[in-house]
Structure formats: C-alpha cells, structure tokens
Amino acid sequence: DATFQSGIHATMAEVLVGWGPDWKVASVDPQCLAALTYAKMTGKHIDFRTPTSLRNEYKNSFVQAPWAGAAVTLPVLKVDGRVAQIGLRQVVAAWRADGHNLEAIDRHSAADGAEMLAFEALIDQTLYPATQRYLWLDELNYSKVTSKAIAAQLPFPFSFISPRGYKATSQWACDGASEDDLLIASERCLTRLEDRLGDSAYFFGDKPSLLDAVVYGYIAVLRSVEMPNPWLCAAAKSRHKLNRLCDRIEKLHFSGVARGQVNVMLPLGFVFGLRTLMLLHRTSSSSCAFLIAQERAMKAAQDREISSVVKKNVEAVVVAGGAMTLFGLFIVLRVVSQ
C-alpha cells in the first residue's frame, strides 16, 4: 500500500486519511488532493494513508472505519488514533490553528481573505457538483473508470459495496442539475478564476493560499483522468493559465509523485465472487446487516486452517478463501433473514 508523506519527517501521531494516487495525480479526489497540496505549501509534515493501508486497524470494527457508509467525506484527520476533523475545511482549520496558515494576516490582507472565501464558495456551487456528476453520475465514466479506481483503494468488503453508495450520495450534490447546466456554470467559474489569476504566480501574487490548492485539486484531477465521456475534462484543459498554475505546483511540490501511478490488483477470490456478492447484498435486509454478516464470515474463514496451504500455493488459497467466505456469508444471511 502506498503511503505519501508531505515532508521528510512525518508526525506519526497525526494521520491524514484520503483517497490515494492514480490517474497520474497524488490523489483521485480533488478535496484530498487540495489537502495534500495545502500541507506541502505550508511545510506541514503529515502521514498520508489510504483506506487500504488502514485495513488492519479496522479489521475488527469495519463499520467504524472513516470510509464506511454512503456519506463518506474524505479527507479525515486522525490525531493519536482518533478522528479529529472531517472534510477539507476542518482539516485546514486544524492546521491553521497549529501555525501552518497560508492565510495569516502578515501574508494576505483582509480584502484578500474575503475574495478567497468568495471564490471558494463559487467553486463549491459550480465545480464541485459538476465534478461529482462527471466522476460519479455519468454512467459511462463511473462504470469504466471511477468505480474501479475507488474500489481498488478500499478493503474488502467495502470495495464491492461502497462505490455504489458514494454514487447515490453524489446525487445530492448535483441537486437535479443537468450536465449542460453544470458545464455552463463550471465554464463561467473557470473563466472568472483565470481572469483573477492573470499572469501571476498565484491568485494573490507570489504567495500561495488555500484557493490555489483547491483549484489545483480540481484542475489536476479533471485534466489527468482519461474518461470515455470527457465533457468536463475539455473545459479544464482549455484554461491555459490555470494549467500553468497546476504545472508550477506539481513541479514544486509533487515532482516524482503526481506523475506516478499506483496499480492495485484486486484479490482473485474477490473477483471470483463479485456477482454472487452483489446478489446477496441486494437480498439482505439492510446494508448494516450485510456488513456485520460479512465481518463474521470473514473471521470464520480466517480461523480455518489455511496457513500451510498459503505457503505452497498463494493463488489457490485466495480463490478458495473467496469461495469459503461467500458460502459462509450466504449461510449467515439466511439465518439473519429468518
């Protein structure tokens, strides 16, 4: 599992949980990428973990994992093993409180701060819902790219269940807006951002701010991911000044990281039982019951005497383990349903 550190020495007591790298960027999620960028800009040393890298920490309590549930909001900041802040704004506020503040009064004026807030609100109202629709609600983009990238970063059984829940949640962000309406609003937002940036290094002169990190998060993801229906990608790539900003940030802070790519292979047993798992999930009384039943089945499978077989033939054990897990899940769900 890939672990990315924003500095040379990470503070192990403080962990940032977020979606990891793929699509040639350091995170597949604009909010997580913005958090990483802000940390880099301030010199904040963090330990960045993906859900897969933390699976052992939650192996006995899957339902308490930060990524459990349909309304998951990453990034999440954990301090001393406990969730302290949820979402980009809360995470940045915590970092500002400990002295890592790009918007300090000695760096930017009060007028600059007000303008930053206005632009961030504009992005939340336009680029955010458009990106949600682009990644999650466009059926072709979701099925071919987004669902696979997210599933590869989730531990079992969330790799099968959660992407569908995240997709359903994204409908709230779009609030029924059509693709055309979201594209028009996004293009207007990008035009205003590009006009404000001009030929400056950053939006407010030579000193970066959260706005620069947020814009980088969106543009970097949209221009990097190769979608079968790239209706929003074209709008992002056409803004040359914003892309120069992204190139500058990548060169300064993500050299050798943002252009890397992580390939995660799903266990053969999971692939083997994908169709059966989805059918069982649909027939279960609730998602919670499914998770609990799955957790019990996984523990039962782990208790079987397979360690000696693993040493001889790893692939055979993974397939057999997947089959046993599915069988155990079926039995437990039958009992629960009765």
What class do helices, strands and sheet pairing give? mainly alpha
Mean pLDDT: 75
Q: H/E order of the elements?
A: EEHEEEHHHHHHHHHHHHHH
Strand order of the largest sheet: 1-3-2-4-5
C-alpha Rg (nearest Å): 21 Å
Q: Low-confidence spans: pLDDT under 50, at least 5 residues?
A: 1-12, 258-295, 297-320
From the N-terminal CA to the C-terminal CA, the straight-line distance is 40 Å
User: How many DSSP helices?
Assistant: 15
The backbone outline, from C-alpha atoms, is globular
Number of strands: 5
- Approximately how much helix is present in the residues? 55-70%
What does this structure look like?
By secondary structure, the chain is mostly helical. The protein has 15 helices and five strands. A five-stranded mixed β-sheet has the order 1-3-2-4-5. A hairpin with a 2-residue loop joins strand 4 (76-79) and strand 5. Helix 3 (110-125) runs parallel beside helix 8, helix 4 packs across helix 5 (139-151) and helix 4 (127-137) packs across helix 6.
